[in-house]
C-alpha cells in the first residue's frame, strides 16, 4: 500500500506539539532547590527566558464539585497578592515587556513567565508571589467568577468547541480525565474566598511542583530566586505517577441536538500510557490515518472541510476520529474504510521512512521556542520518568516499522465513544457498526 506523501506530511506536521531536543545535550541539568524539583536548560541563542511551573496532578487533583479551581486561583492571582496590588503586578510586567501565562490540562496546571534576561529577576518577584500568596479579595473573586462563568457558557456557542468538550467527557467517563479541569458552571459558581484559600493552603505545595527554566540564566540566579520564594512553601506529600489506563468499552454515541448547517462528530478510544512502546507507533499511525482521511474523505469524496485522527498526547493517550459534515453516515463509512485499510494491509516501508524523517525535521523546526523546550522537558520527565529520555524522541519515531503501525491500529482503533452535535436523525446507531 502506498501512502500519499503530501497528505501524510501535512498530517504529520499537525501532530501534537513537543519541541526539539538535542541528542547531545550538555546544557540541561536537573536538581532540587529546597524541595522544588527544577529542570534548567542554559540556552544562549536568544535573550528570552521562559520559566514554567507545573502543578502536577491535573484532573486527578479535583472532583466534579471543585473542577476549575486551579485555573480560577491562577487567574484571580493576577488581581493582587499579599505584597503587590494588581497595578503593581501589571507595571512590573509592562516595564520589562514580560507576560505571565497559565493553562490547565488533564495532567497538570501550568503558570509560566515569559521575559528577557534583563527583566528576569524583577518579574520573578511578581510571578512567584502569584503562586505563593494570592489575595482572594471578595470583590476580585466575584469579578473572576463572573468572567469564568461567561467563558464557560460561551463554549456552547461554538459547536466545534462544545463537541470536543463532550467527547472527552463521554470517552473518559469513570476515569479522572472525564473531569474537565476548566470546570463547569455549577462548580465555578460555588467558589468562595475561603474555599479558595483552603485549597491553596492544602494543594499548592512543593511536592506537586516541577519548575522548568529555559534561557541564558545561570544556576546561581535560579537558586537564589527559588530559595527565597517557592522553596518557602509547604512541602506536602504528593507523588507523581502515571494514571491508570482506561477499560475498553463498546462503541457508543452521545447526541446533542443542535440546528447547525453541518454536524460535528468526535470519538475517542483509550490508548497506552506514555511510557509504553506503543505510544510512538500510535502517534505515527494517527498521523498516517489523518493523511489518508484528508485525501479520501475531504479531497476525493468531498464529504467534509475538516477531518483528522487526533492523538491525545497525555500520560494516558487516546486515539480518535473527528469530522464536520452534512452527511455523517457517508463520512463514517469512508473513515471506517481508511481505518480498516491500515489494520488489514501493511503500509510500504519505503514510503514510511522518508516521511517520518521529514516529520521529525518539521516537528523540531516548528518547536524551537524556549517555552516549547520547557514543555518538552517537562513531558519527558513526567511521562518517561527522566528528562534525558527525551533525547531519544527522534530515534524512537525512526524505529517505528510498518508492522508496528498495523499492530497498534488493530489493537487500539476500536470501541470508539463518540459525541455528536447536530441533527440526531442524521446519525442512526447503525452508522457506528464496525467501530
Architecture blueprint of SSEs:
Elements (H helix, E strand, L loop, with lengths): L4 H9 L14 E6 L2 E7 L5 E9 L12 H8 L9 H9 L4 E6 L3 E9 L3 H13 L5 H17 L4 H13 L13 H5 L3 H11 L5 E7 L3 H10 L23 E6 L5 E11 L4 H23 L5 E3 L2 E2 L3 E10 L2 H17 L4 H17 L4 H15 L8 H6 L3 H11 L4 E6 L13
Parallel strand pairs: 2-6, 7-12
Antiparallel strand pairs: 1-2, 3-5, 3-6, 4-5, 8-11, 8-12, 9-11, 10-11
Helix pairs in contact: 1-10, 1-12, 10-11, 10-15, 11-15
Describe what you observe in this structure.
The chain is of the alpha+beta class and 435 residues long. The chain has two domains: 5-18 and 244-432, Metalloenzyme, LuxS/M16 peptidase-like (Cytochrome Bc1 Complex, Chain A, domain 1), CATH 3.30.830; 28-232, Metalloenzyme, LuxS/M16 peptidase-like (Cytochrome Bc1 Complex, Chain A, domain 1, 2-Layer Sandwich), CATH 3.30.830.10. It is built from 15 helices and twelve strands. It has helices at residues 5-13, 69-76, 86-94, 120-132, 138-154, 159-171, 185-189, 193-203, 219-228, 278-300, 328-344, 349-365, 370-384, 393-398, 402-412, and strands at residues 28-33, 36-42, 48-56, 99-104, 108-116, 209-215, 252-257, 263-273, 306-308, 311-312, 316-325, 417-422. A six-stranded mixed beta sheet has the order 1-2-6-3-5-4, sandwiched between helices. Strands 7, 8, 9, 10, 11 and 12 form a six-stranded mixed beta sheet that branches. A hairpin with a 3-residue loop joins β4 (99-104) and β5. The longest helix is centred in the middle third of the chain and has 23 residues, at 278-300. The two termini are 22 Å apart. Residues 1-23 have low confidence and may be disordered.
Amino acid at each position: 500500500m502506498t501512502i500519499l506523501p503530501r497528505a501524510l506530511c501535512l498530517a504529520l506536521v499537525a501532530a501534537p506539539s513537543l519541541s526539539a531536543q538535542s541528542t547531545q545535550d550538555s546544557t540541561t541539568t536537573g536538581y532540587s532547590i529546597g524541595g522544588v524539583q527544577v529542570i534548567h536548560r542554559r540556552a544562549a541563542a536568544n535573550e528570552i527566558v521562559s520559566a514554567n511551573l507545573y502543578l502536577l496532578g491535573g484532573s486527578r487533583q479535583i472532583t466534579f464539585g471543585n473542577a476549575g479551581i486551579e485555573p480560577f486561583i491562577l487567574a484571580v492571582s493576577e488581581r493582587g497578592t499579599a505584597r503587590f496590588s494588581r497595578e503593581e503586578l501589571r507595571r512590573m510586567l509592562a516595564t520589562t515587556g514580560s507576560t505571565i501565562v497559565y493553562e490547565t490540562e488533564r495532567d497538570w496546571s501550568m503558570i509560566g513567565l515569559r521575559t528577557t534576561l534583563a527583566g528576569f529577576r524583577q518579574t520573578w518577584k511578581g510571578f512567584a508571589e502569584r503562586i505563593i500568596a494570592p489575595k482572594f479579595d471578595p470583590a476580585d473573586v466575584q469579578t473572576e467568577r463572573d468572567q469564568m462563568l461567561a467563558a464557560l457558557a460561551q463554549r456552547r456557542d461554538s459547536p466545534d468547541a462544545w463537541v470536543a468538550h463532550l467527547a472527552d467527557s463521554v470517552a473518559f467517563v469513570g476515569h479522572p480525565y472525564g473531569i474537565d479541569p476548566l470546570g463547569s458552571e455549577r462548580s465555578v459558581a460555588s467558589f468562595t474566598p475561603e474555599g479558595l484559600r483552603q485549597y491553596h493552603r492544602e494543594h499548592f505545595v512543593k511536592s506537586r511542583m516541577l519548575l522548568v527554566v529555559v534561557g541564558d540564566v545561570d544556576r546561581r540566579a535560579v537558586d537564589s530566586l527559588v530559595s527565597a520564594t517557592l522553596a518557602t512553601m509547604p512541602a506536602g506529600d504528593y507523588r507523581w505517577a502515571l494514571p491508570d489506563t482506561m477499560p475498553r468499552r463498546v462503541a457508543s454515541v452521545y447526541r446533542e441536538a443542535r440546528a447547525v448547517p453541518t454536524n460535528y462528530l468526535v470519538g475517542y478510544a483509550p490508548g497506552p500510557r506514555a511510557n509504553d512502546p506503543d505510544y510512538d507507533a500510535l502517534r505515527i499511525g494517527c498521523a498516517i490515518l489523518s493523511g489518508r482521511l484528508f485525501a479520501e474523505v475531504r479531497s476525493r469524496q468531498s464529504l467534509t472541510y475538516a477531518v483528522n485522527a487526533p492523538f491525545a498526547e497525555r500520560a494516558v493517550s487516546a486515539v480518535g476520529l473527528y469530522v464536520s459534515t452534512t452527511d455523517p453516515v457517508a463520512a463514517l463509512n469512508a473513515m471506517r474504510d481508511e481505518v480498516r485499510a491500515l489494520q488489514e494491509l501493511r503500509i510500504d516501508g519505503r514510503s514510511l521512512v522518508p516521511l517520518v524523517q521529514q516529520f521529525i525535521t518539521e516537528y523540531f523546526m516548528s518547536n524551537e521556542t524556549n517555552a516549547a523546550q520547557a514543555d518538552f522537558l517537562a513531558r519527558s520527565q513526567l511521562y518517561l520518568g527522566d528528562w534525558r529520555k527525551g533525547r531519544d524522541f527522534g530515534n524512537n519515531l525512526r524505529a517505528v516499522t510498518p508492522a508496528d503501525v498495523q499492530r497498534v491500529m488493530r489493537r487500539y482503533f476500536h470501541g470508539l465513544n463518540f459525541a455528536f452535535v447536530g441533527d440526531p436523525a442524521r446519525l442512526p446507531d447503525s452508522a457506528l457498526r464496525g467501530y
